[in-house]
Amino acid sequence: xxxxxxxxxxxxxxxxxxxxxxxxxxxxxxxxxxxxxxxxxxxxxxxxxxxxxxxxxxxxxxxxxxxxxxxxxxxxxxxxxxxxxxxxxxxxxxxxxxxxxxxxxxxxxxxxxxxxxxxxxxxxxxxxxxxxxxxxxxxxxxxxxxxxxxxxxxxxxxxxxxxxxxxxxxxxxxxxxxxxxxxxxxxxxxxxxxxxxxxxxxxxxxxxxxxxxxxxxxxxxxxxxxxxxxxxxxxxxxxxxxxxxxxxxxxxxxxxxxxxxxxxxxxxxxxxxxxxxxxxxxxxxxxxxxxxxxxxxxxxxxxxxxxxxxxxxxxxxxxxxxxxxxxxxxxxxxxxxxxxxxxxxxxxxxxxxxxxxxxxxxxxxxxxxxxxxxxxxxxxxxxxxxxxxxxxxxxxxxxxxxxxxxxxxxxxxxxxxxxxxxxxxxxxxxxxxxxxx
Length: 437
Ligand code: C2O
Ligand code: CU
Ligand code: CU
Known about the structure:
Bound molecules: CU-O-CU linkage, copper (II) ion
Largest sheet: 8 strands, mixed
Distance between the termini: 44 Å
Low-confidence stretches: none
Helix content: under 10%
Strand content: 35-45%
Number of strands: 28
């Protein structure tokens, strides 16, 4: 695998709110790639070096020159020093490669890691901490019989791109079906879906209760008990699990029939000074009236003559076209994602955090033929665990998903994209630009 700092996931950054961090990201990768590059994809043409990288901090409120713009890649023997101000609420962020046209391969190769931000407000909650707070990075990979990573290819050797890549090896923190010895007390699990394209539908065996306390951009207003937890690529969840009722048992964190990690609960009772407070951190809902603009943005799939996917687009516009989304710094906008495809797409915006307003079914055929958006159901409120600040949102098929976004932080050029990496690499990504106020 390729890694940041010698392990996959890469080393974890433990940081505090307001404490800026400078990182020099040094590219020491070999000069040829070991996964199948598709030179027909924009940004990965034959005249580009095979191995290129650039680092993005997902969820970071990062100035544009340090955000890892996909075209700002560099090759082995070079480095970039990026500045992360960390002026944002405590949350589990993650950093990963973002190189144009080969991002799915670089991340698959192992270029991802965690970045935790903390603050004194969170400290004062006395959530489980230290060895009782455990990150769980979920991802799937395929392996060849000799144990090497294998990435799927299409039937066309000149265009090996595939619309999604799933693996049969389900890794947690880079390990196959690991186990964890736990004490019968509360633990805090900080979960990232770091997979290229797999969605997880998590639960714990024996009916063990999961209580979600946070999502992508930090703590929820109040804990939410969840039986199942849906996690799309790029999304994070902060969970409290109390093993006290399960002394002596072996529990499994699973995604439907897939077993991900086993918890072996000790038999002897143990004191538990940690708390699960009834309220966590205020998350005031943004009134829709604050939005100065609503943008309607479609998610489109292009099919060839034999109904094979040729790739996805945002607003029917490929990456290289001029920037069309130019919100003004410190203004708030509503973005409505009109999903014309049959897939769920996790849509992520760089720099900002947002709130999910609602999801609503519409008649996609009518929209595609006449341009008229006719709803065929009532607006559905987001799930209780989606009421916190988010940076990635599931946009369901044939559904309009609305988010409300304060464009705060920095003026400059950023990107938004689908976080299914195969889609992102094949045109399901667009630049956007925040204009100075
Ligand atoms: Cu996880 Cu463009 O990011
Ligand atoms: Cu990001
Ligand atoms: Cu997608």
